[in-house]
Every structure is written in C-alpha cells, then in structure tokens.
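Q: Can someone sanity-check these two? First one:
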Amino acid sequence: MDKLEILKTFIGKEFSGSPSPFMRWLNPTVISAEEGHLEFQYTVRQEWLNPMGNLHGGVTAAIFDDIIGATMFSLNENNFIVTVNNSIDYFSTAKENETIIAETKIIKRGKQFVNAECEIWNSDKTRLIARGTSNLFKINN
C-alpha cells in the first residue's frame, strides 16, 4: 500500500499511524487525503496555549510544518522531501478545546523543489487563523 493509501485509511480517524512521533503528539484527525492535498482537524489543548490563553504561534507553526511534511508523503515520491523554509502570516487565534482545520495544497512541484501552501482555520472555516507557504527540497533516501 502506498503512503497516500495509508493516509486515506485514516479518514475520519486520529492519525495514530503516522511515522512521526511529533505528529502523533499533535494527534490530528484526517478529514481528507488526496495527492498533494490534505485536510487535518486538531483540538487545541491546554499545553498549546501562550500566557494569554491563545493558541501559541509556535504550535501553529509546528502544525503548519508537520502537515506540509505529511503532504509530501502523499506525493509517493522515492525521494525524502525536507523543509527549506516556512513563511507564515498569523491572522487570528484559537482557544483551548477549539477545533481547528489545517488544509494544504501544492503550488509548484518541480524536479528538485516543491512549494506548498497551508491554511489553518476555525472549525467552520469562517475565520482564518494562519496562512503560509513552504519551500521543500527533494533529497535521495
């Protein structure tokens, strides 16, 4: 079974089968999985908050980086794809126990580089929390 098919088996479930210990800690639920496009749902936990009681920007960035990494696995390439940089704009926040949705898409898929986008929304996608892009580099396994 290829990596995308594995992701699809978790639609509607927590992604407990992730090879990433960090992603298992973030504990997303897979909403949708297509080649180059993922949608994961998260519940904001107390340990993710800043001193003001809002979702910490570093956790937002970690979700962003982690789901984009999973998006690279959905491409089923023979290369390992690593992050070169992330650029994230923050627009809003989330509170403890709030559900948030992270959605990715591939902007450009080249021979050596991939550019991807991620948006993080509140549960009904009426409030954009963060949006950004990532450049990634393909390396041989």
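And here is the second, same format, sequence then tokens:
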Amino acid sequence: MKHSTTQQTRHGHRGPARQLGRTLALVLPVFLVLSGTLAVTRVNWSGNPSDSVLTATDVSSKGDGKNAAARAPQDALRDQLLTELQEKNPGVALTHLQQAVDERPSLGRHCASIARALGRAAVRVYGPTRAQSYARPVCDTAFAAGVAAAHS
C-alpha cells in the first residue's frame, strides 16, 4: 500500500488571521493610548526622589481648568501632598496634611486615606525603613499603616 503525500497550502489558512493580527497590532496600541490605558508619560526608574513620576491622573489634572475645578478637594489635596512628598519629604507633606485638616474640618474624614496614600508613596520613593522614620500621629496611625501595607 502506497501512501501519497498531499501537501496542503497553509497560506490559505493563515492569510486572514495574519491580516487580522497585523491590523490589531497597529490599531490596538493607538486605541490604548487614546483611551488612557497607556497614558504613563514618564516613569522614575532611577529611584532618585527628585525625579518626578507623571501619570495619567497628573496629565488630566493639569490639562484643562474645567477638569481641575471639578475635582474633589480631597483629591486635589492628596495630589498636592504626593508632589510635596517627592519634591521635599514625607514630613513636610504630613505637616501640610495636618494644617489642611485643621483649616478645613470637612477634610477630616479623608485624612486617614490621604495619609495611607502618603505612606505607600513614601515607601516607593524612600524605601520602608526611611519612610517609617517620618511616621507621626497625623490622622492617628494612617501614615504608618500605609507604609506597612506597601512594605508587606
């Protein structure tokens, strides 16, 4: 019994799939950038705290006045304090958080979440040991809890 080998052309089976793949490869990155999924413009790879990290939220908050005006006061305060944490140190940011809560008691209910965010950011910028050295009882122990959560 003789087996005959018939060679099938694979080009007919791969052609539409390959074309679809190429189309997705070109269209998907553009869609992700326009939708904001890939909107990180600069990442701090050096570990140097003086280098700032600019994310999609930073771009959208600085882009137009209408968007900045529509932001909640606690969000604006958190972003300002995160910038201070990177440019100066967590101690300065915690002092300004306490002053802001003292001046606007309505921010008090957001104090702990802002302090935890500062704690997590401090670990990313300064490392867990140095970040913990800035801990003090602003909004109870929320900053220290943020440091611990980011470290574990």
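A (reply): Looked at the second one. The first helix runs from residue 11 to 35. DSSP finds eight helices and no strands in the chain.
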